[in-house]
Design a protein that fits this description.
Layout: H1 3-17, H2 19-25, E1 29-30, E2 41-53, E3 59-71, H3 75-89, E4 101-114, E5 120-132
Parallel strand pairs: 1-2
Antiparallel strand pairs: 2-3, 3-5, 4-5
Helix pairs in contact: 2-3
Length: 133
């Protein structure tokens, strides 16, 4: 398992367990959305990594995107979901599988916008992590 996979798994577990996220999305938190998923729902998106050097340890600067999808008439719930995700992940200390460790976890960006089908709105939260291991 890579550091990036360990981080994605830890983020997913944290979002599933978080009371604020559960209050808004219920159990609709997925690594990959199943076909026909009920709205609103959350999925993990793209992750991008670059080596970050480090003294005595390998560091990886990793950015993970979390997506939330809702129907257009449920935009307020989308905003609440983005807020709950930010609260759950900003300055968090996710517990990664050994031998990896997350030394920094910050929400660096959040946005919401309409999709091309005009019935769905999308939100995203970008998380930056410094991973060691």
């Amino acid at each position: 398992m890579s550091a990036e996979t360990a981080f994605s798994e830890a983020v997913l577990a944290r979002l599933i367990a978080d009371a604020g996220v559960s209050a808004v999305l219920g159990g609709r938190v997925h690594a990959i959305a199943p076909g026909g998923a009920a709205f609103p729902f959350l999925t993990l998106g793209r992750g991008v990594s670059t080596p970050a050097g480090g003294t005595g340890a390998e560091l990886i600067d990793h950015r993970l995107t979390v997506h939330v999808y809702a129907r257009r008439d449920d935009a307020e719930r989308l905003a609440a979901a983005l807020s709950a995700i930010r609260a759950a992940l900003h300055n968090a200390a996710p517990d990664l599988a050994a031998p990896y460790r997350c030394v920094l976890c910050q929400v660096v960006y959040a946005d919401r916008f309409a999709t091309s089908d005009s019935r769905t709105v999308q939100g995203l939260v970008r998380v930056r992590a410094m991973l060691e291991g």
